[in-house]
Amino acid sequence: AIGLLAIDQTDSCLKILARVKQIQRQLFEQWAVLETLTPTEYQEFRHVLGPASGFQSHQYRMIEFLLGNKNADMLAVFEHDPPRQAELRRALESPSLYDEFLRYLHRSGHAVPADCVERDWSQPHRYRADLVPVFKRIYENADEFWSEYHFCEQLVDVEESFQLWRFRHMKTVERIIGHKRGTGGSSGVAFLKKALELTFFPELLDVRTVIGS
Question: What DSSP state is assigned to residue 125?
């Protein structure tokens, strides 16, 4: 999807995002299976997991990087697997989905600041108040900027689905292990609650406050 957006193939990109949202829905529902585990049932095999953790998931880390939650420190987790580490490094050092969308808006004539178009892609996107007026103009003139408006809403859908997945993850862990530490050494539920504060596309949420004002 990111590669298609980079060459302005927005319709093809949106088709892929529609599939992504269906996959997200499936992933969300899979937590229902794990929620059937009682605390005592989980304790019967928790020792087998050892230090295993979601931190070690190459696919999950790739999703986080592609959506913009960049953290170079996470590469060290994959030192034992050079090909996957190299793949993650490429994703880390390339524009995220949101970065590429901002570049697309810039090419389309919207007032996206130049330092959003070329920057150190290995760093996560930081909130930019000067992007909010850009999105306000798009939202308040949706007929004129339908493609951009529709893409904004699809991104919000993806973000919401990911946050719902995170929330379901946290609640599943809470009901099974309570507030014990996670198998990978994290603080468990406390860590997962903190993750709910992470936002991939903050200006797309913030613009709703100023629409119509």
Answer: P
Cβ-in-10-Å burial (0-12, 13-18, 19+) of 209 comes to: exposed
Mean pLDDT per segment of 10 residues, for the chain of length 213 residues?
Answer: 95 96 96 95 89 84 97 95 97 98 98 97 97 98 97 98 96 93 80 93 98 92
CA atoms of 107 and 197, how far apart (whole Å): 31
DSSP summary character for residue 201: S
Q: How many separate domains does the chain show?
A: 1
Question: Environment class of residue 50 by beta-carbon count within 10 Å: exposed (0-12), middle (13-18) or buried (19+)?
Answer: exposed
Q: For the segment 11-37, what is each residue's pLDDT rounded down to a tens digit?
A: 999 999 999 999 999 999 999 999 999
Q: What is the DSSP letter of 183?
A: T
Report how far apart, in Å, the C-alpha atoms of 148 and of each of 10, 44, 151, 152 are: 9, 51, 5, 6
| Residue 88 identity (one-letter amino acid) | L
3-state helix, strand, coil in the chain (%, to 5): 70, 0, 30
DSSP 84: H
Structure tokens at 79: 């030192």
Q: Which CATH number belongs to the domain containing residue 56 in this structure?
A: 1.20.58.480
The residue segments making up the domain with residue 102 are 2-210
Mean pLDDT of the chain: 94
**The pLDDT value given to residue 55:** 76
